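Progress note, project year one: complex with uridine-diphosphate-N-acetylglucosamine.
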Amino acid sequence: MNILVTGGAGYIGSHTCIALLKAGHDVIIADNLSNSKRDTIKKIESISKKEVIFYEVDVSCEKSVNNIFSKHIIQGVIHFASFKAIGESVQNPLEYYYNNVVSTMVLIKACENFGVGKFVFSSSATVYGNNEVPFVESMNLLPTTNPYGETKVMSERILIDVANSNPYLSVSILRYFNPVGAHESGLIGESPNGVPNNLMPYITQVAKGKLKKLSVFGDDYSTIDGTGVRDYIHVLDLADGHVAALENLIEGVHIYNLGTGKGTSVLELIKAFEEVNLVEVPYQICGRRPGDIDSCFADVSKVARELGWRAKRDLLSMCRDAWEFEKNNQEICLNVSEE
Ligand code: UD1
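Model obtained:
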């Protein structure tokens, strides 16, 4: 299939492009490079030994999107392009609603207008809010704590309504848990701009000495050791999950959790990282981060049953690959003052 991947130069998008190319699909990337680098396109081509078509465009711009759809015969869209920093979404809600929700509307409208029947959407476990774990796809969604989360909830609702109104359009909504790790080549991985918000990139930068110490946000949660529990999933497994969702996409709307089904605490993750990589990750316990929940992990039975997909890689390979990428990532050290 000829697949349009929005946000294909980003962290999850780039790994998914490689998985798609490996599975024999052709890839067109649309990305405005707002949180990614042009260089990643070259790396995707070098890893997969295949060429991709790249458009540097903003997919909330209808004209740019229609231009791509009119130039290529597209069979499916995977829509990753989105802002994802939670704190920033609280500071600039309008930017988040505009960028994340309008892009989804523009793209699904283009699918309708150009007769593209398959749409895969990048959602998040954040839509479950503070439900009881494990999170199951059929649960009622609870309010999220930030505009970013709301943009995912709104986009899901829009896609569900549009797909229900159009028998020629099939939609797969993928709710990611916590993607970590990197491609085994060490060439692509997660390289956030500025100080990372998420745990694994923070750990790798502390281990490398770019940052001094990790702050563990709270040790008084009702979890195994008091620190937050999350379902970390290797980005390569996540990428394969997209290929499975796309290739098995049948009529209607389908929602799947992409996680491992296993929860890991912050302290367990630090320990695993230190043990497998033989490095130290200095940390200190701090207060809770506003908006965080105790535990978040997936029920993965639906995706296994319906798509035959299951995460294969364990926590140790996630830690190993994340560290390999950090070591290869020769960016200038951030000059960040802490404490
Ligand atoms: C958050 C979002 C999720 C989003 C993801 C990627 C929520 C509830 N979750 O996930 O939707 O897709 O980011 O942007 O909105 N932690 C520390 N120290 C740190 C960083 C994190 O202790 O420096 C802890 C957190 O408290 C949490 C765990 O590590 O318990 C994971 O945090 P993080 O990597 O930021 O991901 P989430 O908050 O789970």
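Residues 84, 86, 124, 126, 149, 178, 197-199, 202, 214-217, 228, 230, 266, 289, 292-293, 296 surround uridine-diphosphate-N-acetylglucosamine (CB under 6 Å).
The first strand starts at residue 2 and ends at 6.
No further modelling is planned for this target in the current period.
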